[in-house]
Amino acid sequence: MMELPTSILIVIGAILVLGLLYLFMIMPRIWKKPEKSPHMGVLYAHRGLHDNDSDAPENSMAAFRKAVEAGYGIELDVQLTKDKIPVIFHDFTLDRICGVSGRVDAFTYAELQQFTLLQSKERIPKLEDFLAMVAGKVPLIVELKVEWMDISLCPVVQRLLSEYKGVYCIESFNPLALLWYRRNYRQVMRGQLSTNFRRDGEYKNLFYFLLTHLLTNFVTSPDFIAYNCQFKGEPGRIICRKLYRSLAVAWTVKNQKQLESLEKDFDLFIFDSFIPKDTKFSGKNNEKVGA
């Protein structure tokens, strides 16, 4: 039998090592996972069951009440005010939603109450008030809006969530938030949010490359991957679901046809801009669950 040249063997060996390293780096949590069944078969209303042209704009108490009444789970965004009160608001700045300049964390909670959401009567809600209103009626996906190295949001939010009696999990684009939960609250189900930042036009530095390809998973050990469903073919996402059996969450589904087309690719679905035919829907085994 002809022996392969040493140079070729070195190349093959290097490819194998790099492949194994890649699989290690994208590995989510494998053992001692929190129970996922309370989250399954539920559709999640993105920022509540909202319409930004109505009296129930995104991340408003009105939109959250509508979601609860309809039986949908809720995805919401949380960040801190200047006086360290966790409020529900997506953007770091107030311009788009409140029509004023400035960052959320530049105002106290009391100061923020002078602004309304998208010309409605709704105002920026406290996380505490939201949790009291939902009261465990539907499951929650809480996105932690963490910028760069400041993870002060995590312990403040978790103090409230630890007292909450309902079903919830957390997610964040920032791996440091997930790392904080891994170190301090391993029992809380945590998810890595991501997208293909290059194709999304937000590719800025090495961090976005790592996040696109889920290369921080080995540090944060997420329980689920919440990925932009437009880029469902991202190899790291597929490997996490198929090889490691990690829960796959789709964001943000924009219509019924798209929802049904994603059944085989994801397990949970965050929707926006339409009302699904059913309040419950499962990607597992390609089955719908009765409303």
Description:
With 291 residues, the chain is α/β, with parallel strands linked by helices. It has a single domain, classed as TIM Barrel, CATH 3.20.20. 32% of the residues lie in helices and 16% in strands. It has eleven helices and nine strands. The protein has helices spanning 6-25, 61-70, 95-98, 109-112, 127-134, 153-163, 175-184, 206-212, 217-220, 235-242, 256-261; strands at residues 43-46, 73-80, 86-88, 140-144, 168-172, 190-194, 224-228, 247-253, 268-271. An eight-stranded parallel barrel has the order 1-2-4-5-6-7-8-9, surrounded by four helices. Strand 7 (224-228), helix 10 (235-242) and strand 8 form a beta-alpha-beta unit. The longest helix has 20 residues, at 6-25. The chain starts with 5 loop residues before the first helix and ends in a 20-residue tail after the last strand. Residues 285-291 have low confidence and may be disordered.
Short précis:
This protein has eleven helices and nine strands. It has about 290 residues and is α/β, with parallel strands linked by helices. The protein has one domain (about 40-280): TIM Barrel.
